[in-house]
Amino acid sequence: MTETDAPEYLTTARLRLAPLAPADVAEVHAIYADPATWLHLPAGRHTTLAQTERVVDESEQSWAASGLGRWAIRLRHDLPGTDLPGTALPAGTLIGVASAMLMDCGARNFGYRLTPASWGIGLATEAATVALAVAQASAYPVTARVLAANPASVRVLERIGLTRVWRGRGAPGTTPADAPALPDTTALERLIFADRPLTPELLAAIIRLG
Ligand SMILES: CC(C)(COP(=O)(O)OP(=O)(O)OC[C@H]1O[C@@H](n2cnc3c(N)ncnc32)[C@H](O)[C@@H]1OP(=O)(O)O)[C@@H](O)C(=O)NCCC(=O)NCCS
Fold first, then answer.
1. Cα distance from N-terminal residue to C-terminal residue, the chain
2. Does ligand 1 have an atom closer than 6 angstroms to the CB of 153?
3. Whether the Cβ atoms of residue 69 and residue 97 lie closer than 8 Å to each other
4. How many helices (H) and strands (E) does the chain have?
5. Is ligand 1 within 6 A of the CB of residue 116?
6. Phi and psi of 105, rounded to 5°?
7. Is the full-model pTM beyond 0.90?
8. C-alpha dihedral over 26, 44, 91, 157, to 10 degrees?
9. What is the whole-number distance in angstroms between the Cα of residue 52 and the centre of ligand 1?
10. Are 70 and 98 in contact (CB under 8 A)?
Protein backbone atom coordinates (compact mmCIF):
# COMPACT_ATOMS: atom_id res chain seq x y z
CA MET A 1 0.00 0.00 0.00
CA THR A 2 1.39 3.45 -0.86
CA GLU A 3 1.15 6.60 1.25
CA THR A 4 -1.50 7.99 -1.09
CA ASP A 5 -4.04 5.19 -0.65
CA ALA A 6 -3.32 4.09 2.92
CA PRO A 7 -6.13 5.25 5.22
CA GLU A 8 -3.70 6.41 7.90
CA TYR A 9 -2.24 9.07 5.55
CA LEU A 10 -4.79 11.85 5.20
CA THR A 11 -4.76 14.93 3.01
CA THR A 12 -6.88 18.07 3.14
CA ALA A 13 -6.69 21.32 1.18
CA ARG A 14 -4.00 22.71 3.49
CA LEU A 15 -2.75 19.76 5.53
CA ARG A 16 -1.15 16.35 5.41
CA LEU A 17 -1.63 13.94 8.32
CA ALA A 18 0.66 10.94 8.90
CA PRO A 19 1.07 8.55 11.85
CA LEU A 20 3.21 10.15 14.54
CA ALA A 21 6.76 8.76 14.28
CA PRO A 22 9.93 8.91 16.39
CA ALA A 23 11.42 11.37 13.86
CA ASP A 24 8.69 13.85 14.85
CA VAL A 25 9.61 13.98 18.55
CA ALA A 26 11.60 17.23 18.56
CA GLU A 27 8.95 19.17 16.63
CA VAL A 28 6.14 17.75 18.75
CA HIS A 29 8.04 18.52 21.93
CA ALA A 30 8.35 22.18 20.93
CA ILE A 31 4.54 22.36 20.78
CA TYR A 32 3.87 20.29 23.92
CA ALA A 33 6.46 22.31 25.88
CA ASP A 34 4.91 25.62 24.83
CA PRO A 35 2.92 27.06 27.79
CA ALA A 36 0.53 28.68 25.30
CA THR A 37 -0.77 25.23 24.32
CA TRP A 38 -1.53 24.43 27.99
CA LEU A 39 -3.30 27.61 29.08
CA HIS A 40 -6.26 25.59 30.35
CA LEU A 41 -4.13 22.92 32.02
CA PRO A 42 -0.68 24.37 32.82
CA ALA A 43 0.44 21.29 34.76
CA GLY A 44 0.18 19.22 31.57
CA ARG A 45 3.02 21.06 29.84
CA HIS A 46 5.93 18.82 28.83
CA THR A 47 9.13 19.65 30.66
CA THR A 48 11.20 16.69 29.46
CA LEU A 49 11.73 15.11 26.06
CA ALA A 50 10.88 11.74 27.62
CA GLN A 51 7.26 12.88 28.09
CA THR A 52 6.97 13.59 24.39
CA GLU A 53 8.69 10.33 23.49
CA ARG A 54 6.00 8.60 25.52
CA VAL A 55 3.31 10.35 23.48
CA VAL A 56 4.89 8.88 20.33
CA ASP A 57 5.36 5.43 21.91
CA GLU A 58 1.73 5.28 23.04
CA SER A 59 0.63 6.34 19.58
CA GLU A 60 2.64 3.59 17.90
CA GLN A 61 1.13 1.04 20.28
CA SER A 62 -2.38 2.30 19.51
CA TRP A 63 -1.76 2.17 15.73
CA ALA A 64 -0.50 -1.41 16.08
CA ALA A 65 -3.29 -2.57 18.37
CA SER A 66 -6.29 -0.76 16.90
CA GLY A 67 -5.39 0.63 13.47
CA LEU A 68 -5.40 4.26 14.65
CA GLY A 69 -3.43 6.43 17.02
CA ARG A 70 -2.03 9.93 16.71
CA TRP A 71 -1.22 11.85 13.55
CA ALA A 72 1.43 14.48 12.92
CA ILE A 73 -0.22 17.39 11.12
CA ARG A 74 1.99 19.16 8.57
CA LEU A 75 1.38 22.12 6.28
CA ARG A 76 1.15 21.38 2.56
CA HIS A 77 1.82 25.01 1.61
CA ASP A 78 3.54 28.03 3.16
CA LEU A 79 1.41 29.85 5.73
CA PRO A 80 2.10 33.58 5.34
CA GLY A 81 1.53 34.57 8.98
CA THR A 82 1.04 38.13 10.18
CA ASP A 83 3.21 41.25 9.88
CA LEU A 84 5.10 40.12 12.99
CA PRO A 85 8.49 38.49 12.34
CA GLY A 86 8.64 34.71 12.78
CA THR A 87 4.92 34.11 12.31
CA ALA A 88 5.24 32.65 8.79
CA LEU A 89 5.31 28.85 8.66
CA PRO A 90 6.86 27.11 5.64
CA ALA A 91 5.33 24.13 3.85
CA GLY A 92 6.19 20.91 5.65
CA THR A 93 6.12 22.45 9.13
CA LEU A 94 4.68 20.15 11.80
CA ILE A 95 1.92 22.35 13.23
CA GLY A 96 0.35 19.90 15.64
CA VAL A 97 -1.02 16.51 16.57
CA ALA A 98 -4.46 14.96 16.17
CA SER A 99 -5.39 11.88 18.21
CA ALA A 100 -7.84 9.03 18.03
CA MET A 101 -6.22 6.82 20.64
CA LEU A 102 -7.93 3.67 21.82
CA MET A 103 -8.45 3.77 25.60
CA ASP A 104 -8.63 0.77 27.94
CA CYS A 105 -12.37 1.42 28.37
CA GLY A 106 -12.94 0.55 24.70
CA ALA A 107 -13.60 4.04 23.29
CA ARG A 108 -11.38 6.29 21.22
CA ASN A 109 -10.11 9.50 22.80
CA PHE A 110 -10.26 12.22 20.16
CA GLY A 111 -8.14 15.35 20.52
CA TYR A 112 -5.71 17.86 19.01
CA ARG A 113 -2.97 20.30 19.96
CA LEU A 114 -1.67 22.88 17.48
CA THR A 115 1.11 25.43 17.55
CA PRO A 116 -0.28 28.89 18.41
CA ALA A 117 1.11 30.41 15.17
CA SER A 118 -1.45 28.30 13.29
CA TRP A 119 -4.51 29.08 15.42
CA GLY A 120 -7.63 30.91 14.35
CA ILE A 121 -7.77 30.01 10.66
CA GLY A 122 -9.69 26.75 10.82
CA LEU A 123 -6.75 24.33 10.71
CA ALA A 124 -7.78 22.34 13.79
CA THR A 125 -11.27 21.95 12.36
CA GLU A 126 -9.80 20.90 9.01
CA ALA A 127 -7.52 18.27 10.55
CA ALA A 128 -10.15 17.04 13.00
CA THR A 129 -12.74 16.61 10.26
CA VAL A 130 -10.68 14.09 8.29
CA ALA A 131 -9.32 12.38 11.40
CA LEU A 132 -12.84 11.97 12.78
CA ALA A 133 -14.09 10.47 9.50
CA VAL A 134 -11.43 7.77 9.70
CA ALA A 135 -12.01 7.23 13.43
CA GLN A 136 -15.73 6.80 12.89
CA ALA A 137 -15.05 4.09 10.32
CA SER A 138 -13.41 1.98 13.03
CA ALA A 139 -15.43 -0.15 15.42
CA TYR A 140 -15.03 1.91 18.61
CA PRO A 141 -17.09 4.87 19.85
CA VAL A 142 -15.30 8.18 19.35
CA THR A 143 -15.28 10.35 22.48
CA ALA A 144 -13.60 13.61 23.48
CA ARG A 145 -13.01 15.24 26.87
CA VAL A 146 -12.56 18.98 27.14
CA LEU A 147 -12.40 21.56 29.91
CA ALA A 148 -15.35 23.98 29.92
CA ALA A 149 -12.80 26.81 30.13
CA ASN A 150 -11.44 25.88 26.68
CA PRO A 151 -14.11 27.28 24.34
CA ALA A 152 -11.99 27.03 21.16
CA SER A 153 -11.62 23.30 21.66
CA VAL A 154 -15.31 22.91 22.50
CA ARG A 155 -16.15 24.81 19.32
CA VAL A 156 -14.00 22.51 17.18
CA LEU A 157 -15.74 19.44 18.63
CA GLU A 158 -19.13 21.00 17.90
CA ARG A 159 -18.14 22.02 14.37
CA ILE A 160 -16.98 18.53 13.40
CA GLY A 161 -20.33 17.12 14.51
CA LEU A 162 -19.67 15.42 17.83
CA THR A 163 -22.50 15.58 20.37
CA ARG A 164 -22.15 16.72 23.97
CA VAL A 165 -23.17 13.78 26.17
CA TRP A 166 -22.12 15.08 29.60
CA ARG A 167 -21.12 18.26 31.39
CA GLY A 168 -20.06 18.46 35.01
CA ARG A 169 -17.32 17.94 37.49
CA GLY A 170 -16.40 14.97 39.65
CA ALA A 171 -14.76 14.35 42.96
CA PRO A 172 -10.98 14.94 42.91
CA GLY A 173 -8.77 11.91 43.21
CA THR A 174 -11.13 9.48 41.47
CA THR A 175 -8.85 9.03 38.47
CA PRO A 176 -8.11 5.31 38.10
CA ALA A 177 -4.55 4.14 38.69
CA ASP A 178 -4.18 3.06 35.05
CA ALA A 179 -5.31 6.43 33.63
CA PRO A 180 -2.86 8.27 31.34
CA ALA A 181 -0.17 10.27 33.14
CA LEU A 182 -1.94 13.61 33.00
CA PRO A 183 -2.84 16.09 35.74
CA ASP A 184 -5.98 15.17 37.70
CA THR A 185 -8.79 17.27 36.16
CA THR A 186 -11.70 15.44 37.75
CA ALA A 187 -12.72 18.40 39.92
CA LEU A 188 -12.74 20.91 37.01
CA GLU A 189 -15.84 21.58 34.95
CA ARG A 190 -15.57 19.37 31.89
CA LEU A 191 -17.57 18.34 28.84
CA ILE A 192 -17.64 14.95 27.18
CA PHE A 193 -18.52 14.61 23.51
CA ALA A 194 -19.26 11.44 21.54
CA ASP A 195 -20.22 10.32 18.06
CA ARG A 196 -22.98 8.02 19.37
CA PRO A 197 -24.93 7.32 22.57
CA LEU A 198 -22.71 5.75 25.23
CA THR A 199 -23.74 3.08 27.69
CA PRO A 200 -23.96 4.39 31.29
CA GLU A 201 -20.99 2.19 32.20
CA LEU A 202 -18.79 3.57 29.41
CA LEU A 203 -19.79 7.16 30.17
CA ALA A 204 -19.01 6.64 33.86
CA ALA A 205 -15.60 5.20 32.97
CA ILE A 206 -14.80 8.22 30.80
CA ILE A 207 -15.97 10.68 33.47
CA ARG A 208 -13.60 8.99 35.91
CA LEU A 209 -10.67 9.71 33.59
CA GLY A 210 -10.99 13.44 34.29
C1 LIG B 1 -8.12 24.17 20.43
C2 LIG B 1 -7.23 24.42 19.22
C3 LIG B 1 -6.78 23.08 18.64
C4 LIG B 1 -8.01 25.19 18.17
O5 LIG B 1 -7.18 25.34 17.04
P6 LIG B 1 -7.59 26.36 15.85
O7 LIG B 1 -6.83 25.93 14.62
O8 LIG B 1 -7.44 27.76 16.30
O9 LIG B 1 -9.12 26.00 15.67
P10 LIG B 1 -10.09 26.45 14.47
O11 LIG B 1 -9.57 27.74 13.88
O12 LIG B 1 -10.28 25.29 13.56
O13 LIG B 1 -11.48 26.67 15.21
C14 LIG B 1 -11.53 27.34 16.45
C15 LIG B 1 -12.98 27.72 16.72
O16 LIG B 1 -13.06 28.16 18.07
C17 LIG B 1 -13.55 29.48 18.08
N18 LIG B 1 -12.91 30.16 19.20
C19 LIG B 1 -11.61 30.47 19.36
N20 LIG B 1 -11.43 31.07 20.55
C21 LIG B 1 -12.64 31.12 21.14
C22 LIG B 1 -13.10 31.63 22.37
N23 LIG B 1 -12.27 32.19 23.25
N24 LIG B 1 -14.43 31.51 22.65
C25 LIG B 1 -15.28 30.92 21.80
N26 LIG B 1 -14.89 30.41 20.59
C27 LIG B 1 -13.58 30.52 20.29
C28 LIG B 1 -13.16 30.07 16.74
O29 LIG B 1 -13.96 31.18 16.42
C30 LIG B 1 -13.44 28.86 15.85
O31 LIG B 1 -14.82 28.67 15.65
P32 LIG B 1 -15.53 29.15 14.28
O33 LIG B 1 -14.78 28.49 13.19
O34 LIG B 1 -16.93 28.67 14.43
O35 LIG B 1 -15.40 30.65 14.25
C36 LIG B 1 -5.97 25.25 19.60
O37 LIG B 1 -6.39 26.43 20.22
C38 LIG B 1 -5.02 24.51 20.51
O39 LIG B 1 -4.19 23.72 20.06
N40 LIG B 1 -5.12 24.80 21.82
C41 LIG B 1 -4.21 24.22 22.81
C42 LIG B 1 -4.41 22.73 22.98
C43 LIG B 1 -5.82 22.39 23.33
O44 LIG B 1 -6.50 23.11 24.06
N45 LIG B 1 -6.26 21.23 22.81
C46 LIG B 1 -7.56 20.71 23.10
C47 LIG B 1 -7.53 19.97 24.40
S48 LIG B 1 -9.14 19.26 24.73
1. 38
2. yes
3. no
4. 5, 8
5. no
6. -75, -5
7. yes
8. 150
9. 22
10. yes
210 residues of the chain, pLDDT tens digit each: 444 446 689 999 999 999 999 999 999 999 999 999 999 999 999 999 999 999 999 999 999 999 999 999 999 999 987 777 777 899 999 999 999 999 999 999 999 999 999 999 999 999 999 999 999 998 999 999 999 999 999 999 999 999 999 999 876 555 555 555 567 777 789 999 999 999 999 999 999 888
Tally of residues, the chain: 210
* Nearest one of 124, 145, 2, 13 to 71, comparing CA atoms: 124
Task: Return the ligand 1 atom nearest residue 37 CA.
Answer: 41
Domains and CATH numbers, the chain: 10-208 (3.40.630.30)
Contact residues for 1 (Cβ-Cβ < 8 A; gap 6+): none
Which protein residue's CA is at the shortest distance from atom 18 of ligand 1? Answer: 152
Query: Rg of the Cα trace of the chain?
Result: 17
